[in-house]
Give the backbone structure.
Amino acid sequence: MNLSNSSKPARRYKIAYVIDGLSMGGAERLMTPILQHLNRKDFDAYVCALQSKNGNPMADEIRALGIPVQCLDIKHLRDWNALPRLIKYLNGVDADLVHTQLEFANILGNISAKLLRLPSVCTIHVMPSLDVRTKLKLHQKVEWFALRYFCDRVISVSDEARQYHINISGASSNQVITVYNGIDLSNSMNSNRELERTAVRTELGIPVDADLLTTVAVLRPQKGIQFMIRALPEVIASNPNTYYLIVGSGSHQNALIEEVNKAGLNDRVIFAGMRKDVPRLLTACDVFVLPTLTEALPTVLAEAMAAKLPIVASRVGGIPEMVTDGQNGCLVEPEDLDGLASACIHLLKNAETRVAMGAAGWGTVNQKFNIERQVDQLEQVYLDQLHAYEK
């Protein structure tokens, strides 16, 4: 993507970030590094969560950066006072630009911005699906309508997701751009890997000499973790010292525990729950697995590559823009148990391949998915829109 070179701002602009909630999902976790690297000389940030989700754990991290966070507790999209409350918030912080993320925020935030004659930017983090319940499909259509007619610039996190959004929503190709998600690489560069590896495994009750696969995700059916659990017996048969660490929480957790019980893998699968120290946990692992069924651009793969882990992932959405098969990981078809097992077995049995893929992954994430690169591009998008409104 080529962004124009707008001149530096004559004053500091106030950016209002509006998001559905601040739980531990991928979009929510991205807020902290983006805000941490935002140029405070040019921009003031304000964060508005429309709802409280799992207690909004990311709110404290954002407040620790000195950025105000407010939760409006809007229960439903149809709440009669939802728009007035959000408009009141935007007026209260004297916003210059609105940046929305996730469904409710994309609808309410962009309509509010247009009513206030403010420029608005939206980030699309997911691949929309046509296979959803009627109520969700209605929400999806309303979201597409709001983005098409009320949002000035739609940011997609991968080229694949960008093209899919254009095709499915009817948006103009000029309206939708790609900006890859980025992560902060400083933690990965500064960590003592061997000490962390031993400490994490001891903490979780995993043998220090085990071969450890891991998945980090919100636990829902679309993440495909159930397929990795079903493939695990074949992996263990070939590599008896294999363990599987699942990090995250969600509505599908009980079903996954049932899958583990059914397969008799209770002593080999560890559920670590929702964690804030994902980079630390990754240092304890040998292979990262993401058997997802749909994905726009999973930031967690960038985190895994920053930890120099080889990847086994589904060939869906924007994942092939991150993982080159045979170079920094292995791509398999979604729901392919044999493919998952074979890829994991291959990597667990070949230490040199793991090291080489880990090094290649580090190069990929440093070049394409560095948070500093992402924030530079976001700031330019903001300035383009702000200057357009000032003309």
